[in-house]
Amino acid sequence: xxxxxxxxxxITSALDIVGDKWTLVIIKQMLFENKSxxxxxxxxxxxxxxxxxxxxxxxxxxxxxxxxxxxxxxxxTNIYTLxxxxxxxxxxxxxxxxxxxxxxxxxxxSLNLNSELESVKNDKEKSYEHIIKTYNNYxxxxxxxxxxx
Length: 149
Prior knowledge:
Layout: H1 10-18, H2 23-33, H3 38-42, H4 50-62, E1 66-71, E2 74-82, H5 84-87, H6 90-103, H7 117-122, H8 124-148
Antiparallel strand pairs: 1-2
């Protein structure tokens, strides 16, 4: 996989994987909005083009940031879930939200900020754990429901 990286810099290398316009949006949608199917992503307010979405989902799967599971009763529908590697973006996303609140809100008055952001800021570690636990519970429920159908 070395050919995907421009240089040996850890920041540049991370950006080679997640530095496009859509990757963190997809991870955010999975983590905070319970998006798990291609249809879920296409119906979101971000309006990602289907060809870009398809390419980004394949890319994320290649780097093991997400998993893809086919439904037993519907081979056309895939369920996408975050792996542990994908869940490790939780602090990054929280920091981006906090940074946005502090630095972008003055330019974007209608910024959609979560009302719990201040409490997250006060105890980040506990918040990360809660978000990850909530996602893992959701992930288990959709995989269990879909494997029983």
